[in-house]
Structures are given as structure tokens and as C-alpha cells.
Amino acid sequence: MAGLHWADYLIFAFFLLVSLAIGVYHAFSGNKQRTTQEFIMANRKLKVLPTVLSLVVSYQSAIMILGNPAEVYLYGTQQWFGSLIGYALAILLAERLLVPWIFPLQLTSIHE
Predict the structure, then answer these.
(1) CA 78 → CA 83, 84, 89, distances in Å?
(2) pLDDT 10s digit of each residue in the chain, 112 long?
């Protein structure tokens, strides 16, 4: 098995440096959270796009990223489209039924 090319190491180092720079910037910037509620829940004033991106990223997992291509390879794209329809319906039902019921309770997580 061949090793990584120098360009691969360069790209890897670039992404590590960008992540480090973002962390250092936010550590030293003046916009700090003062309470745990501000830190965890963004004071419940987060706009739609950051909320959606946060939910999508937290929903993705290594199992899904590695498993979906294997499922499509084994069973074809029809299975993937069926899963996609199921995911869309689950998200719509949760958004229309669960969120209006849970949000007024001011809970931090569904497990409270």
C-alpha cells in the first residue's frame, strides 16, 4: 500500500490550522458567553440556518456516512430513495408535532 503524497499532508495540515485558528479566534474574541444557557442554547435566539446546519451535522454519523454507500451498493438506489423519503417524513413530523409541543417547556434536551 502506498503512503500519502506530500499534497495530502499539506491539505491535512491546512485543515488542522484552519480549525486551530477558528478556536483561537473565538477564545480571544470579546463575544464570550456568560452563562451555561448562553453557551448551550445560544440564549434561545439562534436563527433558522445555524439551527438547521447544527441539526444536520449532529444527525450525520460515521455509520450513516459509511453505511449508506454500502447499502446502495448491495441493494441499489431504490433502497436509498426509500430511506430518503422516510427521513424527510420523520423530520417533517418532528417539526410539526414535537417541536411546538416541546419548545414552550424550555427544555435543554428531550431527555429532561
Answers:
(1) 9, 10, 17
(2) 688 999 999 999 999 999 999 989 888 886 676 787 777 777 777 777 777 777 777 777 777 788 888 888 888 888 778 878 888 888 888 878 877 887 788 777 666 6
